[in-house]
Amino acid sequence: MTGTRIWGALTVSLACAAPAAMAQPTVSTNGQGDVAVTIYTGELALVTDSRQINLPAGTSRVEFPDVSSRIRPETVSLVGTGLEIVEQNFDFDLLSPTAMMQKAVGQEITLIRTNPATGAELRERAKVLAVNGGVVLDVGGRIEILRDDNLPVRVIFDGIPANLRARPTLSVTVDSKAAGPRPLTLRYLSEGMSWRADYVALYDEAAKAMDLQGWVTLRNNSGTGFANAKLLLVASDQIGVRRGRRGGEGEPAELTSAGTETAKAEALADMNAYPIADRTTIASAQQKQIAFLDAMAVPATRAYAASHDRLRSIEEAQSAMSTYRFSTGKGGVGDAMPAGSVRLYVKDARGAAQFVGESYIGHTPAGSKLSLATGRAFDVKYQPVVEKREKLTEEQWTRSSTTRVRKNGVVEVTETDVKRNFWRTHMRYIFTNARPQPVTVEFTQSGLNGYSNDTRVPFESIAAEPGETWDMRKWMVTVPANGRAELTVQFDTLN
């Protein structure tokens, strides 16, 4: 008997049994009504479901089938005129042969076995003892296991347990002041739904421009589908379950300049919201894509980037990163871009689009400058070399109060001599270009914070870019076609 199946060729039947009398009337809707779904990027959704219901006067139980099976019951809100909410329950234990057998533990069922040779049926009452990787039965005092031998066996249950449902169902007990039909709006949060943006970019080297298309990829793992729903997508890193950058997405893009322009997207608190114009059906266990961005002839440039950590030599030349740069501001994409993967294609010499790499961007405001890193450029390389490191002074001493000792209410200070050395490091950065066109490499020296936060640059052969920080310095190095270029810098550091 296999451990993953509870029983084999098993037919489940229900004996006719009258349901227990209800203490209060039950009103059940046929299904979802007018549905609106707001999906956040953190695998969380807000579902608003408006249904027309005919309520009796007084206390009754209203059942809402087809709610999400991953509903957060504590977030449920029911709004309607002339009623008060007394109690609510969420029945998520769904009707299935396995669930029926598990609920029958300690109770009796009827087994019907058919002799395959004669077709004769044998009926026996059996008590279900356990359902743990298999079904253990007490049949007339003998202990049996419901075998997985493909012999025809039918099981007849005396009824359906009250808490098993064919569909996820929320039941709410309400007290209505008057009888009559009225709309009731159910609102709740659900896990299991998410969205992300995916982009396809086609770069034209001759035109120095790219066409950019954006797609919304929806995933519904909530266990319930939503038909003909109004859809709103909200870009936020602060709501729901946070996710890191997905594996296999290539190098992350660099936000070289954060934008300050107002996005075309709707503002929702401090988030961007993207309403989908047409209603859509989000089926259960489905992934679907919806187009949301189409920006043509966006000005873009091809460039190269490289970085080096700390003041040290590298024995072998390293490949620079190939990048493509564009703006999300006016004259560029013209709108904010929600987080997602950008797949980049480039036209080859014959004009055909060829895939060259992908990059991942975070939520990007309008007016930003982006640099998409698609991979290493084997024909553009760089090599940092320490030419010389020299001590600026023989030694320098400073006196520092480091220890305080309290004796008999009096503080005594112990002073300690601390030796401080100042160094000058002569760095040479060698850049080579095997391409038939000149290239510009954006080179960054990082890791300068490791030198007591006091690094000085008395000389550099190329002026650094503005906006340097205490941890890094950046230069734009132009390398001629099929040639080389050098950047020399002196760093004065304290350690």
Structural commentary:
The protein has 495 residues and is mainly β. It folds into 2 domains: 31-92 and 165-191, Immunoglobulin-like, CATH 2.60.40; 192-495, no CATH class. 1% of the residues lie in helices and 60% in strands. The strands form 5 sheets. Strands 15, 16, 18, 19, 22, 23, 24, 25, 26, 29, 30, 31, 32 and 33 form a 14-stranded mixed β-sheet that branches. Strand 9 and strand 10 (135-139) form a beta hairpin. The termini are far apart. The relative contact order is 0.13. Residues 1-22, 240-249 and 259-263 have low confidence and may be disordered.
Strand portion, in percent?
over 45%
Structural class: mainly beta
Oligomer: single chain
> Helix fraction?
under 10%
Kindly report how far apart the N and C termini lie: 71 Å
How many separate domains make up the residues?
2
What average pLDDT do the residues reach?
81
Strands, total number: 33
Radius of gyration: 35 Å
Q: So how many helices?
A: 1
**Low-pLDDT residue spans:** 1-22, 240-249, 259-263
Q: Write down the overall geometry.
A: elongated
**Biggest sheet details:** 14 strands, mixed
Which helices and strands appear, and what pairs or packs with what?
Elements: E1 10-14, E2 26-28, E3 34-40, E4 44-55, E5 58-65, E6 77-79, E7 83-91, H1 97-103, E8 108-114, E9 121-131, E10 135-139, E11 142-145, E12 153-157, E13 169-176, E14 180-191, E15 193-204, E16 209-220, E17 226-235, E18 251-252, E19 254-257, E20 266-268, E21 271-282, E22 286-309, E23 318-327, E24 340-347, E25 353-361, E26 369-391, E27 396-407, E28 410-420, E29 422-433, E30 439-446, E31 456-460, E32 473-479, E33 483-494
Parallel strand pairs: 1-12, 2-5, 3-17, 15-24, 18-25, 22-30
Antiparallel strand pairs: 3-4, 4-14, 5-13, 6-14, 7-13, 8-9, 8-12, 9-10, 10-11, 15-16, 16-22, 17-21, 19-26, 20-21, 22-23, 23-26, 24-25, 26-29, 27-28, 29-33, 30-32, 31-33
